[in-house]
Every structure is written in C-alpha cells, then in structure tokens.
Design a protein that fits this description.
IHF-like_DNA-bd_dom_sf; four-stranded mixed sheet; DNA binding; DNA-binding protein
Length: 175
C-alpha cells in the first residue's frame, strides 16, 4: 500500500498554481543492512551477512562500471546510467570546455522489467495517509494531513510544480 499526502502548488509561475497534488509518503528508508536482514527472513538460503556482502560489492561494482562509461542493467529493477548536468551552452564547438560548460554528473535510473512504471501502476494501490504531520513544500512549516482509507484505481501520474499542467510527476526521481 502506497500512502500519499496532498500538497498545494504554491508556484505562481506554474499553470498548476493553487492546484492540489498527491505525493508519496515515505515512512522509512531501508539501508543495505536492513535489506539484507529482510532478504534473510525471506528464506533466500543466504545469511544476512552474505546478503549484505553481495549487495555491498554490487554497489561498488555498479559505481565502477558507471565511472567507466557503461550502463548497468539489473533485470526487473533498473538500468543505471550517468547523466551530465550542463551549465550553459557554448556559442561554438571550439569555445566549449568542460570547466566552463559542465556543472557535474548525476546518477540516472530507469525502471525495467517487472518494476517498470506500467507494472507498478497495475500492482500498486494507493491510500491517503491519515493524521500524519507532513512538512509542506516551500513554506518550511508543517501541516496536519487528514484522510480516509479510500483505495483508488486512478493510476495517473500527478504532482509537483512543473511549468505545464497535467504533465507533472510526484515522487523522488534520480534524475
């Protein structure tokens, strides 16, 4: 069950100004050690320490391969790749320099296989979180969010503060 909270778009420059959008409520972030313990409890045949060791090595190897210019696909999870954050475009190819025109790199992940957006939409159910204290975006203050136990079949992607209404996603992206 994915719980959500509602937030109002306060960006006056947005076409979606003052409209309300759902955002996922993340109740916990698991680290590798907690995930390893969870995997052991699912009778994987491996101990918690073995699972943690394999996942730690996997993370190190994924980083190594990304820095070598390769993409890494983990079936039914994601394709990891590196993106470039540009500062400003150069007027000519000859004027382009990494120092002046590249701000940095970023990690990108695209869902794949059974974890794709289409499959998540058919598997997920959502429910408004009730009696949860949530920090509202942009204002720095919190608000008490009340809601019911309604499950919805609406799988449309909604959210945030993009400049065009109806083309916004809520959630935490890696891009």
């Amino acid at each position: 069950m994915i719980k959500y909270v509602l937030k109002q778009n306060k960006n006056k420059k947005s076409l979606a100004y003052l409209k309300w959008y759902a955002f996922p409520l993340v109740e916990e972030t698991m680290d590798l050690a907690e995930l390893a313990k969870h995997m052991e409890e699912h009778n994987t045949g491996f101990t918690e320490a073995m699972c943690l060791g394999m996942m730690t090595a996997m993370v190190k190897c994924i980083k190594e391969q990304l820095l070598a210019g390769k993409n890494v696909k983990i079936d039914n999870l994601a394709i990891f790749s590196v993106g470039i954050r540009n500062k400003e475009g150069a007027k000519t190819e000859a004027e382009f320099t990494a120092v002046n025109n590249i701000a940095g790199v970023k990690l990108r992940a695209r869902a794949t296989g059974t974890l794709s957006n289409a499959n998540l939409n058919t598997s997920a159910s959502v429910r408004r979180a009730s009696n949860v204290f949530v920090a509202s975006s942009g204002s720095g203050s919190g608000s008490n969010v009340a809601g019911g136990n309604t499950t919805t079949g609406d799988n449309s992607q909604t959210g945030g503060s993009s400049s065009s209404e109806g083309n916004t996603d809520s959630g935490d992206g890696l891009e």
